[in-house]
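We include the entry.

. . .
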Amino acid sequence: MKSYYKCSRLIVLANTVFCSSIIITMTFTFIVTFSSSELSSVFYLVKIASTDLYVCFQIYLYCKLFENLNNKKDSVNFSIYSSDWTNMNLKSKKLLLLAMNMNNVNWLQMKASPRRHVDLQQFLNVLTTCYNIISVMVNTLKK
């Protein structure tokens, strides 16, 4: 499980950075093309906007997938803890205790950094950062 998270973490981080740069580039291109005085094709603007939406949806799916994975893993841990272990025989109690210890030792969650989890909050942070960068680029273009 640790090796899966280690490998997936690199893939998710690379994908998030790549998709964020695509969002910034495509949105800036859309704004520049839309605000230019030249007549641009509506089809071209739709292509840019649809690419932007597709990449946003891709980041959303990654974040939602790992949030669901973390929630399901936490619910399994909670279900084990909430079971009626007091009425079990000694062998079942030991097995349940072993499962609880194993889940607590391997308390893994997909993280983008040591403190930040990959979840919908991370998705909103990515979109907010992209928006801030795009607004700075547009403001420098106007000056």
About this structure: Helices lie at 2-35, 42-82, 90-105, 120-142.
